[in-house]
UniProtKB/TrEMBL annotation:
Source organism superkingdom: Bacteria
InterPro entries in UniProt: Ig-like_fold (IPR013783), PapD-like_sf (IPR008962), Pili_assmbl_chaperone_N (IPR016147)
The Pili assembly chaperone N-terminal domain, residue ranges: 33-144
Protein name, per record: Fimbria/pilus periplasmic chaperone
Source lineage: Bacteria, Pseudomonadati, Pseudomonadota, Gammaproteobacteria, Cellvibrionales
Keywords in alphabetical order: Signal
Signal peptide: 1-18
Length: 227
């Protein structure tokens, strides 16, 4: 779960954590009307929790020129979060709804949504440090006919695993299998967005590359290694 240390409020002694928890942080939405999903935020603290949200559009995801642009103009909102801010009493749970407005996509859109605690009052007779920890959710809005497609490519002596599809997939684990039932784990993992690739260091040229993949579903695929 991705956490972001936002800021500190120096008051006086023991650290006080503005705590919250999310039931999930990765979302898959369709480019269809009424596409939506929910995240439940819980306040396990003994103090009231104030939460704000921020939406970022991710341009060129996974590439060297990737940009995360905060969306603040109402005319540019293609992903909505409701409520945009909320107050949670101690022990309270609240449901936040994510709704996609993108339609007829040729390639998936990527967003990040930050759920950020806001400073409230710290009651303490001692010096205290209040730590604010935000969580950032990853949101994929995908075309109806979206699919990832992995292929092995070479550029001189260097080899790559490239996603030539139009949605992302995560390589959770990879193994080299020179023969059936004989496989060795490789140091290959990471998320492959559409049009991006992973460099394959010292990959053998015989047998198969076995990949354990995770997206909306999980699967195992094997790619033949050519000489």
């Amino acid at each position: 779960m991705k956490k972001i240390l936002l800021s500190f409020l120096l008051l006086l002694g023991q650290p006080a954590l503005a705590a919250m928890s999310l039931d999930k942080i990765i979302f898959y939405l369709d480019d269809a009307p009424n596409a939506r999903d929910d995240v439940v935020i819980t306040n396990p603290d003994k103090e009231t929790l104030y939460v704000q949200t921020e939406i970022f559009r991710v341009d060129n995801p996974g590439l060297d020129n990737e940009e995360r642009i905060r969306v603040i103009n109402p005319d540019e909102f293609r992903l909505l979060v409701s409520p945009a801010k909320a107050i949670l009493a101690p022990g309270e749970r609240k449901r936040f709804r994510l709704m996609a407005l993108d339609r007829d996509l040729k390639e998936e859109k990527v967003y990040r949504v930050t759920f950020k605690p806001v400073v409230g009052e710290v009651k303490s007779e001692q010096t205290a440090l209040k730590i604010l920890v935000a969580y950032q959710a990853l949101v994929f809005v995908q075309p109806e006919d979206g699919s990832y497609q992995l292929e092995l490519q070479a550029d001189g002596s260097q080899r790559y695993l490239k996603n030539i599809g139009n949605i992302n997939v995560e390589v959770v684990e990879a193994r080299h299998c020179p023969s059936e039932g004989e496989c060795q784990k490789l140091d290959i993992s990471g998320r492959l967005y559409a049009g991006t690739s992973l460099t394959l260091e010292d990959l053998p040229t015989e047998g198969e590359l076995e990949l354990f993949l995770r997206g909306r579903d999980s699967e195992r695929v094997r790619l033949p290694l050519g000489s």
